[in-house]
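Per reviewer request, we include the raw input and output of the structure prediction for the construct analysed in the revised manuscript.
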Amino acid sequence: MLAIEEQSFATDRMMRRNFRYAILKAKGVVLVADCQVGSRSDDCPSDMGRRPVAYGVLGFHAGTPLARLTSFAVEPGNRGRGIARRLLSALEDAAAAHGCAGLRLEVRADNVAAIALYAAAGYRRFAVYPAYYEDDMAALRLEKPLAARSPATT
């Protein structure tokens, strides 16, 4: 996951300790798509086993019915194959199963591909954070309501 993060983001990266905390201690979900998702024979040679090609980190916070997508990335060589769309849907399912009424996230205002993905998935902008990122790029705040689900149906 750390390698995907480093390939995907020039600034504002999650560090090894952030991933460790998200996986071991945080209240949330970390989902990983491996090379089997939309796999090509050269994606995951049999002698190497499975390897991550995308991940999403979702946080649940007490006192709010909303989940927050804190990090989401697909390995550059595997973009454009539907992995992000399927992983985002799985994260939404996890949030809904947890009882969350919606999901929020921030995305760089210049990340055209990610904005298009979120818009196609039903996210709507509700605010802008000017100079949010280390390089002073603005962040668009997006939100999507989630249909209620019981844990037994997931």
